[in-house]
Amino acid sequence: MIEVIRSRRNIKKFKPDEVKEEDLMTWLQAASMAPNHRMTEPWEILFLGKETREKLNHKTNFGNAPVVMAVLSKNGATQIELIENALATACFIQNFNLAAWADGVGAFWSSIGASERNREILGVPDGYEVIGVLGVGYPEIIPEPKPRKPIAEKIKRLP
Ligand SMILES: Cc1cc2nc3c(=O)[nH]c(=O)nc-3n(C[C@H](O)[C@H](O)[C@H](O)COP(=O)(O)O)c2cc1C
């Protein structure tokens, strides 16, 4: 588990090899075991076809990933619920990323879906946030790790 977490990278260039639908479903189903307050299960997934990808006009076409999916989070009735649901959906995405990575498949997490223009292209209804648009596929290049600060620098102990 630690090795999967440590070795995962945000992938920017993919091989054209197909990712099996069955594998995608396995990773997505596993991802939905993400923690979510009040069991809102706020995540929704849009698989993007060629036409939608062209309209988004991403600068590298998501590294030519064979699969691109937008992950939406349904907002709740309050601002707190919106934040909690977005956090739960981020957990969902990370679960997906790690499950796929354990099987050799990487993801490119892009925030391209956040703009008003791109929300329209994706047909995102009011009441939803786009947490990420993910390119998914077998990595062509695996980047070097971006070092993180020692965690001790981030820890305070309260009395
Ligand atoms: C909410 C969120 C949005 C992100 N949006 C982008 C993005 O638009 N473009 C991009 O290249 N990477 C994006 N990333 C990926 C980060 O840039 C990447 O995780 C970071 O550089 C660390 O690299 P690593 O994941 O390979 O360790 C995003 C990550 C998160 C969590």
UniProtKB/TrEMBL annotation:
Its cofactor is FMN. SUPFAM superfamilies: FMN-dependent nitroreductase-like. It holds the Pfam family Nitroreductase. Residues 55-138 form the Nitroreductase domain. Gene3D superfamilies: NADH Oxidase. GO terms for molecular function: oxidoreductase activity. The keyword Oxidoreductase applies. CDD domains: YdjA-like. It comes from the Bacteria. The keyword Oxidoreductase applies. Keywords: Flavoprotein, FMN, NAD, NADP, Oxidoreductase. InterPro entries: NAD(P)H_nitroreductase, Nitroreductase, Nitroreductase-like, YdjA-like. Belongs to the nitroreductase family. PANTHER family: NAD(P)H NITROREDUCTASE YDJA-RELATED (PTHR43821:SF1). This is Nitroreductase. It comes from Neobacillus bataviensis. The lineage of its organism: Bacteria, Bacillati, Bacillota, Bacilli, Bacillales.
